[in-house]
TrEMBL record:
The gene is lutA. Residues 3-83, 128-221 form the Cysteine-rich domain. Pfam families: CCG (PF02754). This is Lactate utilization protein A.
């Protein structure tokens, strides 16, 4: 299958290793991956700041750039959720509907489209999973604690295939890290306290590496980790699955 790879702005600018790991991982499971050089932002930052009308040309550009691909894959739950749910403000055309339906978060794509059963990967470390709000409650990549039903996690399922990974149990497995995009700018004190609480939970349980499918959450926590000189690392889940 041919995949159009969409890399979010912050990964492109600050965490290119996560983007490269995503590409290599998709190729490893048998996909033909194309990175359209004309791609830009998905428009989420503008929309979240109340400027959705200004974001519409960005939405249109995304649809035009990726409409040719069988699947569109992105290593970010928040960007995928925005495309899936909020591109409804565009004209109700088959092209727009198709792009929204064919855009997948990385773990969702690996589990439900590719059907990955094994990975030739090794990462000997104690790993704590951070479930982003958009990924967990928007895309249903895992089981939220407020919901009745069977417990599941796409990240846990995929990481269980990596030799040497010891998944760390947490007290609050689905608590927000406090990033929330522009929320962290508008409410810095509250955002910081929420991030400190998440990091403390990992520290209590001996986490060595915090991983997530949303690099934006990890970026927020990494800022606190570096500032407070905490002995923790953050890595996008693609980097571990591709190790």
């Amino acid at each position: 299958m041919t995949v159009g790879l969409f890399i979010p702005c912050y990964i492109d600018q600050f965490y290119p290793k996560a983007g490269m790991a995503t590409l290599q991982l998709l190729e490893k499971v048998g996909c033909t991956v194309v990175y359209p050089r004309d791609q830009t932002c998905c428009g989420q930052p503008l929309a979240n700041s109340g400027m959705e009308q200004e974001a519409r040309p960005i939405y249109t550009h995304f649809v035009e750039t990726f409409s040719q691909f069988e699947y569109i894959v992105c290593p970010s739950g928040s960007c995928v959720y925005h495309i899936n749910q909020h591109y409804d403000v565009l004209e109700d055309s088959e092209e727009v509907k198709s792009v929204r339906d064919r855009t997948f978060e990385l773990a969702d794509f690996l589990v439900n489209v590719v059907g990955v059963k094994e990975l030739n990967a090794s990462f000997p470390a104690r790993v704590g999973i951070h479930n982003s709000c958009h990924g967990l409650r928007g895309l249903r990549l895992g089981h939220g604690s407020e919901r009745v039903g069977a417990d599941f996690s796409y990240y846990r399922y995929l990481l269980s295939m990596v030799d040497g990974v010891e998944l760390v149990p947490l007290d609050r497995v689905d608590e927000c890290c406090g990033f929330g995009g522009t929320f962290s700018v508008n409410q810095p004190e509250l955002s910081t306290k929420m991030g400190q609480d998440r990091i403390a939970d990992h520290l209590r349980h001996g986490t060595e590496v915090i991983t997530s499918g949303d690099m934006s959450c990890l970026m927020h926590m990494e800022g606190l980790i570096r500032r407070e000189e905490i002995p923790l690392r953050v890595m996008h889940v693609a980097e571990i699955l591709n190790s």
